[in-house]
Design goal:
The structure is a single chain. The protein has 171 residues and is mostly helical. Helix 5 packs antiparallel against helix 6. The chain is flat, with a radius of gyration of 26 Å. The N and C termini lie far apart (89 Å).
Length: 171
Amino acid sequence: MAEEAKKKKDRGLWFREMKSELKKVVWPSKKQVINNTLIVIACCIAVGIFFGNKFLIGLYNNDPAIIAVGSGLLSMVALIQPFQCSQFVLAGALRGAGDTKYTAMVVMLTAMLLRPGLAILFINRFGLGLNGAWYALVVDQVVRTALVFYRYHSAKWLTSFKPAASKAEAK
């Protein structure tokens, strides 16, 4: 009996200590859990597209040549997704803060000059064909992400925001 009472006392002590330790844990908020879950889902989809590209293309066409070309292009799409998603979010934050000139300039320079220029170079000079155009898209997205990321972290956009009252006073 004494041994069983000691075990119950030890279990009670263990639960009290565990409860005490759990109170020290900083639990994520509901919003953080949802955001982290969405990130995991997006990563799983990108990994699925990257490794299941032949299967996905095979759902639409049985031609081995098309599957080979399409799976390579789909791999590039999967690889640029993290860059593209980050760029969309940060550029949206910059535009929302009133830094529209910078984001417009970045999009104009990369989409209208960099991407077509690199595509012409990769296709005509290096003979990369369709893949060359997609390589240009990858470079475009990575450069655009880097520029937007730099601007966001430089905090220069904080001075772009002017409340509506001060804009009216400036006129």
